[in-house]
Amino acid sequence: MPSPPPDRWPQDHGGNVWEAVDASRVVDFSASINPFGPPPGLWDEVVAVWPLIVHYPDRSCRRLIEALARRLGSPARALAVGNGSAELIDLVLRCLAPERVLVCPPDFGLYTGLVPPGVAVHRVPRAEARSFGLDLQGLEQAVRAGDLVVFSNPSNPAGTLLPAERVLALADLCRERGARLVVDEAFIDFVPDQSVAGQAPFREELVVLRSLTKFYALPGLRIGFLVAAPSVAERIRSRQVPWSVNTLAQAAGAFCLAQEGWETRARSALEVQRRRFSAALERLPGVRPLPSAANYLLVELCRPAPEAGRVYRALADQGILVRHCGSFGLGDRFVRVAVRRPEENDRLVAALGSLLPARMAAP
Q1: Which of 52, 133, 186, 243 could be cross-linked to 211 through a Cys-Cys bond (beta carbons 3.0 to 4.6 Å apart)?
Q2: Residues 6+ apart with CB under 8 A from 78
Q3: Last residue of a domain, one of 234, 258, 282
């Protein structure tokens, strides 16, 4: 049965705390942001840079580009920085001028939402039976010359991971067929050894999108970047609106990229909390968290648990915001929840348990 239209569902994106009466009291599980916040010292860095706001931002983002080049071991000319990855998704879709865009639902909605007029969209659905892993056989059969294949890895909303070697094998196929591959690695910081960004400068067929807002907890500053062959990166930079990345964002991004010790500690702490959170949810009847490589869990709801719409509304009434996954094409069966601090995760588990029949909610 086809899914209902997206406008039936309460959300088309997470993180909209501004609809709450008091946003400061909302515990936001709907946006998958590092709950431990930005690295220590960032505020001092922002204060130090504050006097520079009387000038236009560095249009070339030199300090941030240099920090990215050092971190990734990539040539600076292979990089482009944007006002969040959303700006870069739009630029990639327009600049690469595909004849057709292949998407793999359920996945991030902007891939289809930003497809230029007149460009066809072909869907190769992910396999629910494999926790919404990619249908590689279906992609291999579908790809043809002029195509642009785009998907998230780890996937959003499911958190499934396609290993790097299989991503590169798919890139090889795209090159052979005269197509291109765009891999959105917005959440790869949680499994950094599986990134293919280091290969992108040497492959004309591969573009890798990255975000600094999730892992470093900076969504309000909007910082994203991409890695591609220098000729492709230059084409994208040439079509970019001037000064799209502000001075504070550039400084914050460069500062965060230097915090390697903090990254290791944050990654380890989030891994522990994800396992703990998933186990606690799994003990609730009718609640099935799927395996995830990222800092969020896609949770299937079946009897005796209520449908996702009721869960979303009941939790919102308690100041807890989760992501209803209807706009991902998953109907009223799934919610996505970010991994947050232990006491917040416990609060959500208790609140969700209270929605179950009393005799069944006990762990």
Answers
A1: 186
A2: 200, 201, 227, 228, 229, 230, 233
A3: 258
